[in-house]
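Section: Multi-chain targets

For targets with more than one molecule, the full set of components is provided together so that the structure can be written out for the assembly as a whole rather than chain by chain. Components appear in the order listed by the source. The example entry contains three components.
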Amino acid sequence: MATTTRPAESPVTTSAIRGLLSVRNIAKTFGKNVVLRDISLDVAEGEFLTVLGESGSGKTTLLRIIAGFESATSGELWMGAERLDRLPPYKRPVNTVFQHYALFPHLTVEENVAYGLRVAQPLENDISARVEQALARVKMTAHAKAKPSRISGGQQQRVALARALVKRPKLLLLDEPLSALDANLRRQMQVELKSLQREVGISFVFVTHDQEEAMVMSDRIALLRTGELEQVASPREIYSRPATAYTAQFIGHTNLLRGEVRNGIFRCNGLSWRTDLPDGSALLSLRPENIRLHTPAFKSSSDDAVVFRGKVKQKVFHGATELLQVECADGLTFSVRTASQGELHGELESEFQPSDAVSVRESPERL
Amino acid sequence: MEFFVSASTQNDFKSSWLFVHAIAVFFFLYLPIAVLVVYSFNGTGVGGFPPRDLTLAWYHTLFADSAIWESVANSLLVAAAAVVIALGLGIPAALALHRAQFPGKAVFRRFVLLPLILPGIITGLSLLMLFARAQINLSLITIVIGHGTALISVATTEVFAGLQKLDRAQEEVSLDLGANYWQTFWRVMLPNLKLPIIGAALLIFTLSMDEIAVSFFLIGRDNTLPLEIWGRLRRGITPEINAISTIIFMFSLVAIVLWYRLRARIEGSPEIASELIETAVQGD
Amino acid sequence: MFSRAYRAFVTVPPLLWVVVFLVVPYFLMFCYSFWSVSQSQVIVHSWNLDNYRELLRVPVYWQTLLRSMWIAARVTVFSLVLGYPLAYFLSFHAGERKDLYYQLVIIPLWVSYLVRAYAWKTILGSEGVLNTLLQYVHLTKHPLEFLLYSPFAVVLTLTHIYTPFTFLPVYAALEQIPRNLVEASHDLGASPRQTFWRVIFPLSIPGVLAGATFAFVLSLGDFLAPALLGGPSGIMISNIVVSLFGAAYNWPLGAAISLGMLVLVVSLLFVSERLEKKWSFS
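Its structure, encoded as tokens over all components, is:
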């Protein structure tokens, strides 16, 4: 019998991926401002991890601490057996792709890419070979002799990527590198970046505020909210089993149902169904696509399904799908996602499976 | 563009050496001024270490010296007139360079900005030759003309910099809403130029008070303060000059603090006069 | 958009002034340089190249010019040596005190040039502060003569005057360097010292050029410091011009020298501008 199940385990995946980078209890305070509180995270070898969060969540600060541009107030960074946070940025095997690319304006594209190699070993001969290879990989060979001011934003970004990758770092940090690009170019770059990461096999730590971007590109997502990790999981897991209300709402759309559980029955306004949850108050997340709409004459074929009558209040056209606002008799409004049909309006029967309503923790306001 | 000011940036061993160097340079810059001030109170005169006999005698002499105060009055007059001329011509020049297109604009800009970098002697001498040919007697008026000519460039540069900082969108909105360029200037641009203009006036006034290279050749019967001091220096040094120098220093201090506050109100980080040097050298 | 009246208003008055008081005087100077002066101190308008021949022929003129250029060169180098590290310190190491230090550098700029030159005179003289101090602490027995009335005094005083002037554009240039470039350089493995020479310094070159040009040109044409502190061995080219317009009364010759200086300065500006363009990347 389908019931609503318990919430996902804990914010951090505790299967202890002893991987490449170990972030241990990192905290950062600027003056009176607590930006990061007790962040612990492991980055696996060859993984594409996205640190996702709104502005002010501390994601950029975390990245800068890993890169070495900020020092943490407390906590440690380990890479293998080496303690990273005591090293200055130029000694860490970590490279960064900056948000605004930070290409050196007085050097050509080639010289930019060669920079990291030249400062390490100025006399090496195979620098040009490696530079060529790096440029070819990001498809910027034709612009090798141009100055950064002469190429477009998207092209600058590729150069920044090549410049960081040519050093073969163990870990690549990317600070919202796609945010300055327009939508189509952005989508294209997402795909390219993802395949590049696969090709090169380096761990990527990617920072963004765009949840769609995170979903598309990542092996795992670390969701950061006002300095704390809300949940760290794969995109699928974080979407279908969000740990908290915030996660459920931040990633994709959801309906949050607040109600009481008594004697194994969850009640919320006029609706109720069987559940495994303990007695007490409960918060459930129900994704809009899990609600199906039928004509008023509908009779459900499933015993467990929750059915209710509702009225379509609003429709938003999203191309392939539509998002409808359906209001029930007791005032509860549901978001429902359907394939675009254009014909749904008025009074309808709505149906969903209780197992699709996932229990989530509250997300209290944080100061 | 974000400028991350990071604690770990450029923390190199140089840091303490650089600090020592900075202190040394400050010492070098302030030593003469300090000596000047100290010895203006020195009973035994200008040279001689260590200073002794703390006295205000030189200040008394100074205040009784009518020739000096006449020259101060002259300087103030000249400076005020110079401000009027320099702004009166510099503001239109800045506007012209800002947006208007006309033939010979580049040449015009060069000429207007030239006195910024040209040694004063050339400006002074060329004007002297003009006055000689035109048979105009040298007087305070010729000095005013000299200062005005030299300082238009300062006014133009400062006002132009202020114009550049004006949000172009504001001008466009005004025009879009139906105002013509006159009205836009009076209602939108000028109020925003108040601070750069006041700053320019302050700068021009100070520069004029101190001006000697151009004035040197255009002087008639009446001295300006720097020329009066210069004349006395030829005859010999007296601590009275220390006294007047100290007073000049005090006024400069006030002027600079004022201008700094002014600039701090216009923009976040006030960088005074650097645009003058860059404009002077680059011509744009 | 631009009414003709507006355009006329903003261009005509300044243009008029510039023509009357800049263009015409330079032209006059040009003319004067081809004239000569008669025995009875009257300027004769016979057009000839005598003045220029005199300048080329008589050694004292180009000797003085060379000495002036050498003095100006030293002033430029010393003010940069003093001013650049100071600007670097303020821009990258001063943190919160940056504004305060900046004000401290600017204040001497606003103190009268004459006052500062005079101050050095009182310090460097044989009975001046420095000499009596040195004798007081028994470092020397007799006053050091070279301190005053020498090229040394001129260079010292002019360096004092122009150090803030070289500081300003260098500081402005350094401030404009986006800090993420510094971070990117560190990120790629360059030490702070490497970062300075490979990134920071190249990007500050336009500021250095502007400051150097300003210091050089104005030192070259200076006549006040040499007159006060230079003595016979410290005479610079402008002092010669001053005397030609004064006691020596040879305006045409003076005009010729002035014109030469004008041409020299303009050429230097041209070169400097070219170099700055080559080194500015934005």
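The interface with chain A takes residues 1-2, 4, 6-9, 11 of chain B (CB under 8 Å).
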